[in-house]
């Protein structure tokens, strides 16, 4: 999977819609402390289905919505869109994944304009060997956590990296039926 574009509106410090094209190769995000570098990565992780507000440095999920500043009022919703290129049997295909949260209404997900469940988004990224908990996304302070991880947790990281994490979700589903 290759992420081609990230569109962020009302998420944390990204109050005005921001459109980021991500070119092939290595991308660096640089800027002074507090300018929003971690928020950018969190927007990506959030859209991939991150369910823990704490791991997004908030108390509740609604804390990701722009909370206002001295000069700007707070927003009522946050929306992030990922345009990704996914491999198919005969080439690649573009897919847009959108997550939106509204105050008092919770999160909603769309894949290519269709309303879907959080688990559909999680499966899409699990099959592509990436996702909210992918070892490809290393947050500040995460290195220490990897070193201190229990073997079972480390196995989960390896399975995610190997692209087989989605199989466990499907097996649990099958066992319940
Ligand atoms: P560092 O270099 O220190 O790691 P950074 O570039 O990663 O900094 P972030 O942590 O991404 O910076 O951004 C922090 C900023 O985001 C703070 O100014 C904080 O007030 C702002 N912020 C976080 N959540 C919200 C929110 N819900 N609404 C408005 N601003 C927010
Ligand atoms: Mg940071």
Automatic annotation (TrEMBL):
Belongs to the SMC family. Contains large globular domains required for ATP hydrolysis at each terminus and a third globular domain forming a flexible hinge near the middle of the molecule. These domains are separated by coiled-coil structures. Homodimer. Signal peptide: none annotated. It is found in: Cytoplasm. Required for chromosome condensation and partitioning. It comes from the Bacteria. ATP binds at residues 32-39. This is Chromosome partition protein Smc. The lineage of its organism: Bacteria, Pseudomonadati, Pseudomonadota, Alphaproteobacteria, Sphingomonadales.
């Amino acid at each position: 999977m290759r992420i081609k574009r990230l569109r962020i509106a009302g998420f944390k410090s990204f109050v005005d819609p921001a459109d980021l094209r991500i070119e092939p190769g290595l991308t660096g995000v640089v800027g002074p402390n507090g300018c929003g570098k971690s928020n950018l990565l969190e927007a990506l992780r959030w859209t991939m289905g991150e369910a823990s507000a704490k791991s997004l440095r908030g108390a509740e999920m609604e804390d990701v919505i722009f909370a206002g500043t001295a000069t700007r009022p707070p927003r009522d919703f946050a929306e992030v869109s990922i345009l990704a290129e996914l491999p198919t049997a005969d080439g690649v295909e573009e897919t847009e994944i959108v997550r939106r949260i509204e105050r008092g209404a919770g999160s909603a997900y769309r894949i290519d304009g269709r309303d879907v469940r959080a688990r559909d988004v999680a499966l899409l990224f699990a099959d592509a060997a990436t996702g909210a908990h992918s070892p490809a996304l290393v947050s500040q302070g995460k290195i220490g956590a990897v070193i201190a991880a229990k073997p079972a947790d480390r196995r989960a990281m390896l399975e995610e990296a190997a692209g087989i994490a989605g199989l466990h979700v499907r097996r649990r589903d099958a066992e319940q039926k």
